[in-house]
Amino acid sequence: MIKTVIIEDEKPASRKLERMLSNFPDIEVVTKIESVEEGVAWFSENEHPQLIFSDIVLGDGLSFDIFEKIPTKGFIIYTTAFDQYTLKAFKLNSIDYLLKPILEEDLSGAIEKFKSFLPSNNDIGSQDIKQLIRKEKSILSRVLVKIGYNLKIVQTQEISCFFSENKIVYLQTDDRSYPSDFTLDELAEILDEKKFFRVNRQFIINSDYIKNIHTSPYYKVDLEFQPQEEITVSRDRVKDFKDWLVS
C-alpha cells in the first residue's frame, strides 16, 4: 500500500479528496492535517508517507513552512486554487501541482506520475529524491494580489509588464500597478517565454502590449500600459530581444 497524507484546512475539500483517493485501491490515507502547527508536530513524530497531497495556503501559514522545518523524503502533490507558488513548490519535492477544483483525470495523471518515480521495491528512502524528480517547467497563468483586505486574481495575459521599484516587484495592468510576492528572477523562470522577455534588470515585458520600439540612440520600448519610467533594453540583451520578437 502507498501511505498518503492529506494536508488541507477546508474540511469539505479534505473529505472530497479522500473520497477521490478511495478509488485507488493501492492508496491508503493515514491521516489528515489541517494546519502548519499540526503538520510540524505530526511529521516530527511519525514515519513520513511516500506521498503527500497538500494545499498551500493554510489558516496559520503556508504548508511550505512544514517542509522547510521538517524536510521530507516523500513526494508532494500540491493542491491549490492559485498557481503563483509553482516555483517554490517544485523546489520542495513537488512532482505535480493540481489547481482546484481537482478533476478526476488530473488526479489520476498525478498519481501515475508519482508511481513512475518509484523504484521496483517502492522504497523511496533508498534513493535521492532530487534525482528522481524530473523538473517540468510550470508556466504562470494567473497571479494573486492583495488590495487592502481583499484579494484579486490577475491573469498574466492582462499584465503588460512586471517591474521592480524600491525592492518590490509590481505588475502593470490597464488600470493600475499591483505589488506581487515574486522577484524578477523567479518570474523569469515561470512566465511564458514566448510572451514575456526580461529587457533589463528592472523590467519584464509582455509582447502583446508593445506599442512602439525605438532603436536610436538606444533600444527603448513603449507599452500600451506602463509605469512612468521609460523601458530600455540592456545592450547585452538587444540581440536576444530581437530574436525573441520574431520567435
UniProtKB/TrEMBL annotation:
Organism (species): Chryseobacterium jejuense
Domain Response regulatory: start-end pairs: 3-115
Modification 4-aspartylphosphate, positions: D55
Cited InterPro entries: CheY-like_superfamily (IPR011006), LytR-like (IPR046947), LytTR_DNA-bd_dom (IPR007492), Sig_transdc_resp-reg_receiver (IPR001789)
Keywords: Phosphoprotein
Pfam families per the UniProt record, alphabetical: LytTR (PF04397), Response_reg (PF00072)
Entry-linked Gene3D superfamilies: 3.40.50.2300, LytTr DNA-binding domain (2.40.50.1020)
PANTHER family per UniProt: STAGE 0 SPORULATION PROTEIN A HOMOLOG, TRANSCRIPTIONAL REGULATOR-RELATED
Protein name: Sensory transduction protein lytR
Domain HTH LytTR-type residues, every copy: 143-247
Record carries keyword Phosphoprotein: yes
Record-linked SUPFAM superfamilies: CheY-like
Keyword hit for Protein biosynthesis: no
One GO MF term attached to the UniProt entry: DNA binding
